[in-house]
Specification:
The chain has one domain. The chain is built from 6 helices and 2 strands. It has a two-stranded antiparallel ribbon. α2 crosses α4. The structure holds zinc ion. Zinc ion (ZN) binds next to β2 and α6. Zinc ion binds next to β2 and α6.
Length: about 120
């Protein structure tokens, strides 16, 4: 039978782990950026699909049909990097489900489609 850890337990554990392992925090951050950029390349490049904006600091990986949080939280263990890694390893699924949008276009899309979440 699969072991189920509660979110609060693993979040607490990771907080303590991060405090004791600053090198892990740095590596985790670098990996997150690396996988995010790699995923953008899979999706056609570091460029907003809507308006062509190219500064990757303000580019987002967007779920075409919305519901990104709902999808990746249970499946990928509440960790956006695991989602990036998953889609880098499954590029065909990534191309079907994801697109690159800039912060502006992503906000406008969420507003237009009624995909508002806790970010407003
Ligand atoms: Zn845009």
């Amino acid at each position: 039978m699969a072991k189920i850890y509660s979110q609060s337990y693993s979040a607490r554990y990771m907080r303590v782990y991060r405090a004791d392992h600053p090198e892990y925090v740095k590596k985790d951050y670098e990996n997150r950026i690396r996988y995010r950029l790699e995923l953008m390349d899979i999706l056609g490049g570091k460029k907003c699909k809507q308006c062509g904006f190219t500064d990757n600091r303000a580019l987002h990986i967007d779920h075409i049909k919305g519901g990104g949080c709902r999808e990746y939280k249970p499946q990928h263990g509440y960790n956006s990097m695991r989602m990036y890694v998953f889609y880098v390893k499954h590029p065909e699924q990534a191309k079907k489900k994801l697109q690159v949008l800039c912060a502006n276009c992503n906000s406008i899309k969420r507003y237009t489609n009624g995909e508002l979440n806790h970010f407003g």
